[in-house]
Structures are given as C-alpha cells and as structure tokens.
Design a protein that fits this description.
Length: about 270
C-alpha cells in the first residue's frame, strides 16, 4: 500500500523526502534457484524522522537496508537517498548492522575511528573527533580497552559512535539492541532517543523485531508481509517529546500495538 495515499493534504506541506523508494523489487539466486525477496516496496523518510520497518523473519527487512546503503541493487524500481540515485549511494549513509562488528585486536578508540580512517582522515584528527564525543556515549575512560572487556551495552555504544562519526545525515540501524537483555535494551532505547535529540537533523531507518521498541522510538512504522516482502500497512506515532515509557500505558499505544501484532500473527509467521 502506498503511504503517499494517506493524509495527502498534510503530505504536501511536509519537508522534502531524504529517502524515497518507489516500486522496488528484488529476487536473489540461491543454489541456482531464484526466489522473490522484495516486491513493489514504496517507502520514504524525511529529515529528522525515525522510521521503523517491522515484519516477519525472512521478509527482506535487512536486505532492504542493504539496498538503502548501496550494498545491494534492486531488480526494478528507484531508490534515492538525499537525491543520490542507485550507483552513488555506497558510503554515503551510516550503517550499523545486527552485530557490533568491533575488531577484537583494536582498542575502543581505534574501533570507533575506523570509519574516519577509511574516509582518508588522519589518525590524529580522527582521534580528536572521537575524544570529543566519548563522554556523551558513555565511553570516557575506556578508550584503551579492548572489546572483550566491555559490556554488551558499551559495545553497542562504541559501534554507534563509529557510525555517528562518519558524519552522515542518514543512519541505518539493523536490530541494534537485539543482543542485549531486556533491562539493558530499555536503557539503550532511552539513550538513543536522548542522542537523537542532540543530533536532531539525523534521519534514522530502524529495522527491528520488537513492536514496542518500534512504537517507542519511531515517528512512523512500516509493516511488511512475509516474503516476498511488501508494505502492508503504515502506522504513525504522535507521541509528545521528550518521550517517556508512560506512553506504553496509553490507549493509543495499545491500539497501534494490537493492530501491528494482529497483522503479524495473521501472516502465520512470528516477527
């Protein structure tokens, strides 16, 4: 379903789309057999929005992020990120994948500056930029530690700092907190919201299996069908900012959560 058919009068007055995906389809070859991954996907995100993508396992959510990042190309349809088309997206977005991907032989400092080094920035300048942000990411005092010495939450914050330091306006987050226990996950969700209040120009696309996480963090949620992944529904969040967990008890929160879960359960596949 095309979301631009919803609230059309309001849409005309909103800011320019930072990400725009139109009619994207993709099929992959596995063991000499083709199968459809995505089918006619339409999607957009505007500056400063957090937009979540949620759906059953295997529906193509992570593949969709790979397409936005330029790591994968669709068979049909168009993708634009900040007005940049298909061939030039690679390296222009910050992409935090499901695992933190910290290199065990590099210290925290050397891990977080890796992206800057790959951009050709000198190690001295990269270290200075990272040092200025270590405290706000809860990593001050751990710059010379190796990943094995960090808690799960600290590893996630280090990976996120590495992503932020690339200084891109678009952040793609693929299940960033899925490896954490429930308490640390809650802390990290609140930390992310606080961080995005500081970096309010960032546009974030979040893939998650957690409906409550999507509701808490997002401005809009795209709900996908089982493979081949299609956009089945779009939900809008109207929570006041700053957000608190008190929204979890509101009737609006429960209504949207129920609608999303009903759609996921009707698909016959658990998210």
């Amino acid at each position: 379903m095309r979301e631009d058919l919803l609230d059309s009068e309001i849409e005309n007055n909103l800011e320019k789309k930072i990400i725009e995906v139109v009619d994207v389809s993709l099929r992959l070859n596995r063991d000499q057999d083709y199968f459809e991954v995505l089918d006619s996907v339409d999607f957009y995100a505007r500056q400063g929005e957090v937009v979540s993508v949620i759906g059953p396992s295997g529906c193509g959510k992570s593949t969709f992020l790979d397409i936005l990042a330029g790591l994968e190309e669709p068979d049909s349809g168009t993708v634009e990120v900040r007005g940049i088309g298909t061939e030039e997206r690679l390296g222009r977005v910050g992409y935090m994948q499901q695992t933190d991907l910290l290199l065990p032989w590099r210290t925290v400092m050397d891990n977080v500056i890796l992206g800057l080094e790959m951009q050709g920035i000198s190690q001295k300048v990269a270290r200075q930029r990272a040092s200025e942000r270590m405290d706000s990411f809860g990593l001050s005092g751990f710059e010379d530690q190796y990943p094995y010495a960090l808690s799960g939450g600290m590893r996630q914050r280090a990976a996120f700092l590495r992503t932020i330091l690339t200084d891109t306006s678009v952040l793609l987050l693929d299940e960033p907190f899925s490896a954490l226990d429930a308490l640390n996950r809650s802390h990290m969700q609140e930390w992310l919201l606080d961080l995005l209040d500081v970096y309010e120009d960032k546009t974030v696309v979040l893939v998650t299996h957690d409906v409550e996480e999507a509701l808490f963090l997002s401005d809009r949620i795209y709900v996908m069908t089982p493979r081949p992944g299609r956009i089945e529904n779009v939900e809008r969040m109207n929570w006041n900012k700053p957000r608190t967990r008190s929204i979890f008890t509101t009737s609006e929160f429960m209504d949207i959560k129920t609608r999303i879960l009903s759609r996921l359960m009707a698909s016959g596949v658990v998210a």
